[in-house]
Amino acid sequence: MNSDITWEDPYCAEGNNCFRIGTDTTGNAYIAVTGQEDTPLTDTHEALRTLILEIKAGKADHLL
Prior knowledge:
This protein is α+β, with helices and mostly antiparallel strands. The protein is built from one helix and five strands.
């Protein structure tokens, strides 16, 4: 696991579907399933911000 990542507290939905969001000091953002932080998805802060805003706007509702 990248020790430079600062992880937020886990976010858990129904059924224990938990994930964590993290950031590092070089501008990267991370998303990982809780307990699997050693294999996160990695992208920029801006990409993570865009993803969250699009989800909040309902653009991923068809996946639910």
